[in-house]
Structure formats: C-alpha cells, structure tokens
Specification:
Elements: H1 3-33, H2 45-94, H3 103-116
Helix pairs in contact: 1-2, 2-3
Keywords: Chaperone, Disulfide bond, Membrane, Metal-binding, Mitochondrion, Mitochondrion inner membrane, Protein transport, Translocation, Transmembrane, Transmembrane helix, Transport, Zinc
GO biological process, one term: protein transport
Protein name: Mitochondrial import inner membrane translocase subunit
C-alpha cells in the first residue's frame, strides 16, 4: 500500500475512533448526570459539576487504556522479534553457522528480522 494512502487511512481511522469515543462519553455522562425530564433550560450547578467530573474520568481512563495498549503492543512486538531471532539462530546452528563468529550470517539474520517488522 502506498505510504500516503496508509497515512491517510490511519488518520481517518483515528478521527472515526475519536468521534466514537466522544459519542460514547457524551451518552454515558448524559445518562449519569442529567435527568431524563428537564425542569430548566440550563444545566444546574450539580449537573454541570457531575458532567465535568464524568468527562474528566472518561478521558483519563481513555488515556490510561491507550498507554497500556501501546505498552502491550510494544511487548508483543519485542516477543515476536525475539522468537524470530531464536528461531533463526536455531536454523543457522543446525546448518553449522555460529552467529557470534559469522558476521555475514548475523547481518543476514538482522536484515531478515527488520524486513519482517
């Protein structure tokens, strides 16, 4: 896929995800903080405070989840690279190469690992 198209697709997906998060937050906080039958046209002080706290908590949780998912993704990627390295080392040892002493074999393996990312 063209890098520009991939970047545009990623940006569109991010906008869609943010809109979805905003809609979910709005619905959840509205249900929690605003009674179904309005008595006044404006929010009461209690409703406004409730909405402010609800939105702050929702955004904080969203940020924390994002950090955790990123952390898990990095760990998963590191594990995948490690498994590929171990697998390739085993193959090269089976073929009689010693990666510590054969720089060309090491470069070949490193190139392969990088190309699979």
């Amino acid at each position: 896929m063209d890098p520009m198209k991939a970047q545009q697709l990623a940006a569109e997906l991010e906008v869609e995800m943010m809109a979805d998060m905003y809609n979910r937050m709005t619905n959840a906080c509205h249900r929690k903080c605003v009674p179904p039958h309005y008595k006044e046209a404006e929010l009461s002080k209690g409703e406004a405070v409730c909405l402010d706290r609800c939105v702050a908590k929702y955004l904080d949780l969203h940020e924390r989840l994002g950090r955790k998912l990123t952390e898990l993704s990095v760990q998963d990627e590191e594990a995948t690279v490690y498994e590929a390295k171990v697998s390739l080392e085993a193959r090269y040892k089976f073929l009689g190469f010693n990666l510590l002493n054969d720089f060309a074999a090491f470069v070949t393996i490193a190139t392969f690992i990088v190309s699979t990312l």
